[in-house]
Write a structure and sequence with these properties.
Belongs to the universal ribosomal protein uL6 family. It is a single chain. The protein has 3 helices and 13 strands. The strands form 4 sheets. A 4-stranded antiparallel β-sheet has the order 11-12-7-13. It has a 3-stranded antiparallel β-sheet with strand order 1-6-5. A 3-stranded antiparallel β-sheet has the order 2-3-4, with helices on one face. The protein has 2 domains: 78 residues, Outer Surface Protein A, domain 3, CATH 3.90.930.12; 82 residues, Outer Surface Protein A, domain 3 (Alpha-Beta Complex), CATH 3.90.930. It is of the alpha+beta class. The chain starts with a helix and ends in a 14-residue tail after the last strand.
Amino acid sequence: MSRIGKKPIEIPNGVKVSVKDNVVAVEGPKGKLSERIHPLVDVNLDDSNISVSINDESKKSRSLYGLSRTLINNMIIGVSEGFQRTLLIEGVGYRVALKGKSLDFSLGYSHPIVVDPPEGIEFAVEGNQKLIVKGVSKQQVGQVAADIRKLRKPEPYKGKGVRYEDERIIRKAGKSGK
């Protein structure tokens, strides 16, 4: 049994949750999210709590038990507080600028790279070296941040590139001269 799946999820004030045909819909001050939960998992809605239980003791249902609880919890956190991921741009001449809602990157290529935000994602730029990706869906924020990081991954010799704020780059020694 999952220890995470056993914990009930508290519903904060201002958040509305509905469960219908294994689809959990969450609405809050930041937006709306919905997720289809696997039929092997039951979602029980009380006044201020949500609990997750399983129908049988099969391996598949036990593996989906904690996952379903975490997905519902992430939806509730997303619509009440939101998620964000911070990226740092390092390197001489590497920078990012916000033009309208889209991002304009200069990453050492011969052309600028323009990234448009998908629906539900906002960008914020601090200085020209720090980028913040904000949104309601944890999965979508993480995926957009990973796609931006892929534009120019940090290299191990000088550390140039786009990296997460909490990421540590293991540096290599360069050539040793005589």
